[in-house]
Design brief:
The chain is of the alpha/beta class. The chain is built from eleven helices and seven strands. The chain is 37% helix and 22% strand.
Length: 260
């Protein structure tokens, strides 16, 4: 099986096979409707070697040995497993992980990732647009952004207060991100007739932005909700963790669940 996957992987990669690190996971047996033959369904995962090598180098320089190097979306799926189980095989769940310099998108059906994409818009880009609009110096500190609340339209199509230049700049970036999410969702749904998106789950540090779930709900016309990994996993904690930190723990906790 491994030899076959190594040979065939190149047919599905957007870059040369020799430049990729590849892994796979058998999902089960399906019957091909075209020839009525049983076939093994496989999830293929690949990334450029330069990406994995950069992670390995960083940990090596820190004197640490890597036990597992995993795609972040796989870890997130473990964290939100109980949420995903609420939906049937004809209902897709979209996970948008809003991280520092990008947003990782995963479309999951029946607990299995079917489509993944990295969108180069994260909290850094949002904070940079905010700083530029407010004539503030560049910074990698996104704490101001994460403390903001996104204005949303009421039933009359207006916001409660007049947005300032910084808020307008943030709304523009969020609108761009929303459009990219919509393109990816439409691209995937166009390949299937009887599939619909049931839920958009927002994770990562960017999910701490106030009312960002309401913004995407209006922008995409989809049910959207933030994921609190600690609450989702029913974890008991000894001290309170701020919301902007809680929302960013999904990947870390999902990695820890590998061995559970």
């Amino acid at each position: 099986m491994q030899d076959y996957m190594n040979q065939e992987a190149g047919l599905y990669l957007p870059f040369p096979r020799e430049e990729a690190d590849v892994d796979y996971q058998k999902l089960g047996i399906i019957v091909d409707p075209n020839d009525d033959l049983e076939k093994v369904q496989v999830a293929l995962v690949a990334t450029r070697k330069e990406v994995t090598d950069s992670y390995i180098e960083v940990f090596t320089q820190a004197g640490l040995a890597i036990d597992v190097l995993e795609v972040s979306n796989f870890a997130l799926i473990r964290t939100v497993k109980d949420i995903l189980q609420q939906y049937g095989p004809q209902e897709a769940t979209v996970i948008a992980d809003l991280e520092f310099d990008s947003t990782e998108l995963a479309i999951v059906v029946d607990g299995v990732p079917q489509f993944n994409r990295t969108i180069p818009i994260g909290t850094y880009q949002m904070q940079s647009s905010l700083n530029e609009a407010m004539n503030l110096p560049p910074t990698r500190d996104t704490s101001e952004l994460l403390g903001m609340t996104v204005p949303v339209l009421d039933t009359m199509g207006v916001t409660g207060n007049e947005p300032n230049p910084g808020t307008n700049a943030l709304l523009k970036v969020l609108a761009e991100l929303g459009d990219e999410l919509r393109r990816s969702i439409d691209f995937y749904l166009n390949q299937f007739e009887d599939l619909e998106v049931a839920q958009l789950l927002l994770t990562g540090s960017g999910a701490a932005i106030g009312q960002i779930d309401d913004f995407f709900m209006q922008r995409l016309s989809l049910p959207a909700s933030k994921v609190d990994p600690i609450e989702t996993l029913a974890l008991e904690i000894e001290q309170e963790i701020p919301p902007e930190q809680r929302s960013s723990l999904g990947v870390v906790l999902g990695l820890g669940l590998r061995e559970v």
